[in-house]
Amino acid sequence: MLENSVPLSHYLMLSATLFVIGVAGVLIRRNVIVVFMSIEIMLNAVNISLIAFDNYMNLSNGQIFSFMVMCVAAAEVSVGLAIIIALHRNKPSVNLDDFNLLKW
Amino acid sequence: MELLIFYPLAGFCVALALGVIFNKSPVGSAISLIGMMLGLAGIFVLQQAHFIAILQIIIYAGAIMVLFMFVIMLLNLKQGENEGWASREKNLLLSVLTGFLAIGILYKIWQVLFSVDMDTPASLPDSFGTVAVIGETLFTDFVLPFEVASILLLTAMVGAVVLAKTKLD
Question: Which of A27, A47, B73, B104 is the most buried (most CB within 10 A)?
Fold first, then answer.
């Protein structure tokens, strides 16, 4: 039997803190690549709490879910970075405020 | 005992995540993010999820961050480097919004920490988090999501190639 001495609430606090840091990065940064990295931070924060609940309830579903989250993150990064390259080709900038063509 | 490992690792992850969003150059952000991914892999090991920890290192710290580095080098970001991060339009509004969010989450954490009793972790069987158990669940209960994930990755690959092509013919 594996003993587990870190309480669940500590993992949830770490997860919430990292998620808030990710949201803050999306809101206050204007470099599109850093905004993308903040999205990755948020996905990782969710993985921590999925596995923490898994550990708490002795299941393996949460680990499958975080595996799927990683798949989606990989797909999202490849397509998103391709979009950034295509955007940069049309308009050489990485500032999000420069891309306002679709804004009402 | 595990708390002595948990607190430094968690502090390391939070500090590096702050480093990602407050660093001025994108390369520095990317390197901080690699460090954060490695720290999170350590936290997954602490949670007995060894398979996910290895995947975290291979997929995130390996593949995804190499892709980020490639794109940063490809775009050759020189002009935006010294402009800082604090000049986005409506930045004050967004910062206030972020502050409210942070205060709300911290209040919720405070509540959870001192009122709800969730802190009695069960002891786990030895097989928790091993590749055998994960694989059995993945290929019995989650076969359909697994196949859908393969189609998703194929679609993303084709999409990335089509989007990054210079000219469609």
Answer: A47
Number of domains in chain A: 1
Q: Are B84 and A79 in contact (CB under 8 A)?
A: no
**Domain carrying residue B39:** 1-79
Q: What is the CATH classification number for the domain harbouring B26?
A: 1.20.120.1200
Question: Residue A93 burial by CB count (10 A; 0-12/13-18/19+): exposed, middle or buried?
Answer: middle
pLDDT-wise least confident of A1-5, B7-11, B48-52, B53-57: A1-5
- CB nearest to A25's CB, from B20, B44, B105: B20
Angle at A17 between CA A68 and CA A22, to 5 degrees: 60
Show residues of chain A in contact with B63, CB under 8 Å: 74
The last residue of a domain, from among B17, B47, B79: B79
Q: Write out pLDDT tens, residues B102-122.
A: 888 888 777 777 766 666 566
Q: Token digits for B27?
A: 């390369």
DSSP three-state, residue A31:
strand
Whole-angstrom CA distances from B95 to A26, A27, B89, B111, B169 are: 11, 7, 11, 24, 44
For B56-89, what is each residue's pLDDT tens digit?
999 998 899 999 999 888 887 665 555 555 555 5
The mean predicted confidence, pLDDT, of chain B is 84
Which residues in chain B (20-49) have CB-CB distances under 8 A to chain A? 20-21, 23, 26, 29-30, 33, 36-37, 40, 43-44, 46-49
> Which CATH number does the domain housing residue A52 bear?
1.10.287.3510
